Predict the 3D structure of the following.
Amino acid sequence: MKIGLFVAAQYPQDASAAAGIDAHLAQVGLAREAGFSTVVAGQHFLSHPYQMAQPIPLLARLAAVAEGMRVGPAILLLTLLNPLEVAENLATLDAISPGGVVAGFGLGYRQVENAAFGVEDKRAALFEGKVDVVRRLLAGERVTASGPGYELSDAQLSLTPRRTPEIWIAANSDAAVRRAARIGDAWLLNPHTTIAELERQVGLYRAQRTECGMPESALPALREVCVAETDEAALEIARPYLGPKYDAYVEWGQSEALPPTDTLRRNFSDLAQEGRFVIGSPQSCAEQMLEHESRLGVDEILCRVAWPGMPPEQAMRSLELLAREVLPLISASKRQSETPGTGP
């Protein structure tokens, strides 16, 4: 199981975004030294109550210190964007990043973003069409296609990536999970729901892949992660920052994007007790990550270790514990389970 870093590029309105980006550079440097596989960043527009850095220019800056790590957006709100520009940006990012690029795309769910870009009708079909266009352009094909805001006639990228990036599709609802199975190279498991709900949806995803005659795929997962000396300390460190972040998700409409069997309209203590987050001591966090592998088949966990307003030193301490204590515990557990005559 690989470990990656999700850069939480959101900051309180009164904070310095420049200082936040400096903190991301330090986090990526530590992750690189620890052997993390990937660094990714997400996208929102009109992100009140937070400032938010856009992922492509941010990742171009972070690639300078990633040194061999794969980088990429996870995710871009492709429904809102021009697919030619997205493909050109990803090809450029690949040229900047020696470790290669991953391309994560999502339909999006916020009405304020859809309205701002004039994209409010037939969004799913528009999204699927744009995924197809970007995939073909990145593969070096000549593409003829059109849709709202773009028209391509025998178009071909002059700059193409060295390796065609994996396309990850973000999905929360059951219908979106099935779509991810049909059109993506992998489903990026969402960070908001419980491990039990994800286990059910992984079954849907695999069944859809089989029905479509598609091979098994990678299963990367984004999770909120806070590591401290004890379970209680980790919970108290995360609460003041992760709690308001999930309040904002509820305000944005994220809870309604989940399957009807789940909701974010709960207090933080309840959310934190449902296997929704990876929070605790090094031992507890190692066990929770291994559970994601054993129950879901997750092969990469992208860790978001900071949230708006969290002091950089706290995020770095959590990341240090993850790198220096959690990962060795995971490795030791896997070695033990692979030794004949021993159990996990």
In short: The chain has twelve helices and 14 strands. The two ends are 15 Å apart (CA to CA).
